[in-house]
Amino acid sequence: xxxxxxxxxxxxxxxxxxxxxxxxxxxxxxxxxxxxxxxxxxxxxxxxxxxxxxxxxxxxxxxxxxxxxxxxxxxxxxxxxxxxxxxxxxxxxxxxxxxxxxxxxxxxxxxxxxxxxxxxxxxxxxxxxxxxxxxxxxxxxxxxxxxxxxx
Length: 151
Hints:
By secondary structure, this protein is an alpha+beta fold. The chain has helices at residues 43-56, 80-87, 93-98, 104-114; strands at 12-20, 23-31, 36-40, 65-68, 71-74. It has two domains: 1-67, Pleckstrin-homology domain (PH domain)/Phosphotyrosine-binding domain (PTB) (PH-domain like, Roll), CATH 2.30.29.30; 81-150, no CATH class.
């Protein structure tokens, strides 16, 4: 049974082209209340739906730019120049993480989003780094900071 969700165009904050089943056939829609939706379409229809979102969603700038963690960038994560601008500069995601404004988890989630990964599609599950430093011990003391890598 399929679930139907409704949301107002005014609530849309971000729309990203995504892969689904390793094919470029989905859109991920982020709403102002923190929810997001991965919508899969036949391949030829996705871009038409994307253009419709960009035309009607008033929360997204007319220039098809939007905010990811306070960064202006294009809605299509496939465009490398805007990805780079989200990672460097004084107000970048990386600088916000360095200043302690983002947790490690938040930073990694932003990096995964910028890389085009979605936790809504397990075929491209977000990548998180190895956190352990000790791979030799028979038993790990999880209270010992030396067991973990220092990011």
